[in-house]
Amino acid sequence: MKRLLALMLLALFSTGVLTACNTVAGAGKDVQSAGEKVEETAEDCKDGNC
């Protein structure tokens, strides 16, 4: 019984970790995309014509 409980907890923990990795990777892509847009806007406004 203890072994089954330990395996279930391990599976739950592993699922949580893998989900978190995908979430963090997705958030990183979103932040990178937002940063690129800010950089493009800054380049466009460099000469004062925003």
Automatic annotation (TrEMBL):
GO terms for biological process: response to toxic substance. One of its GO terms (cellular component) is membrane. The lineage of its organism: Bacteria, Pseudomonadati, Pseudomonadota, Gammaproteobacteria, Lysobacterales. Keywords: Cell membrane, Lipoprotein, Membrane, Palmitate, Signal. InterPro entries: Entericidin. Belongs to the EcnA/EcnB lipoprotein family. Residues 1-19 form the signal peptide. The keyword Lipoprotein applies. This is Putative small secreted protein.
